[in-house]
Amino acid sequence: MQKIFVIEDDENIRNLVKIALEGYGYQVLAFETAEEALELVGKEQPDLAVFDLMLPGMDGLSAIRLIRNRDDEIKNIPIIVLTAKDKEYDKVVGLDGGADDYVTKPFGVLELAARIRSLLRRSAEQQPVHGTGKIKMGGLAVDTAAREVVMNGETVSLTYKEYELLMYLIDNRTRVVERDELLNKLWDYSADIETRTLDIHIRTLRQKLGEEGSKYIKTIRSVGYRFVIPQENDNKEN
């Protein structure tokens, strides 16, 4: 039975989510604070965690960063953050802080369960979307064995999902990659799931790559994205 941590300070929401997910066959451990969850995360070894960002004491974002900085397998568990519907900033910082996806409040249990199911399925596959070795393209260098990204001599700190997104685009750089394909391959989401997760990941990935970020990752309007080497792209345009 797969185990899920739910960290939510609102008792009504916490109990609703716990009961609903147990109805889907998951073992659910629910916590009011991040400190309680972090104290047991090593012992309980959850398969996925759902974090509210606004928590008493330690906030959800700080807790997520602590999990991602662990030196054991727990650091790679899928994490979903719960955010307010009108707070775009929370979505960005949540994903940038290491979350894999977000669900906005108020949310339906069916939607949350679908996101959880997809992330758990993707996590269980554990299939890398790229090979191993060293890649050098323009000012961008990637050591895939160490999962290290360097731009113009400066190390770029990427979350797990940002790195996977970058590598998928690099591996498929000879073509335009459609949005639905990225959502399916990296999040295991079907086309009928509405989410801006991909948009936010693309935005933060470009920002982390610096001024040249938008040159490497091109938006193909109404289709998807394509990875290009800036020098090659500039030569084609001249």
From TrEMBL:
GO terms for cellular component: cytosol; protein-DNA complex. May play the central regulatory role in sporulation. It may be an element of the effector pathway responsible for the activation of sporulation genes in response to nutritional stress. Spo0A may act in concert with spo0H (a sigma factor) to control the expression of some genes that are critical to the sporulation process. Residues 132-229 form the OmpR/PhoB-type domain. The modification 4-aspartylphosphate is found at residue 52. Gene3D superfamilies: 3.40.50.2300, 6.10.250.690, Winged helix-like DNA-binding domain superfamily/Winged helix DNA-binding domain. One of its GO terms (molecular function) is transcription cis-regulatory region binding. GO terms for biological process: regulation of DNA-templated transcription. It comes from the Bacteria. SMART domains: REC, Trans_reg_C. This is Stage 0 sporulation protein A homolog. CDD domains: trans_reg_C. PROSITE patterns: OMPR_PHOB, RESPONSE_REGULATORY. Pfam families: Response_reg, Trans_reg_C. Keywords: DNA-binding, Phosphoprotein, Transcription, Transcription regulation, Two-component regulatory system. Residues 132-229 bind DNA. Residues 3-120 form the Response regulatory domain. InterPro entries: CheY-like_superfamily, OmpR/PhoB-type_DNA-bd, Sig_transdc_resp-reg_C-effctor, Sig_transdc_resp-reg_receiver, WalR-like, WH-like_DNA-bd_sf.
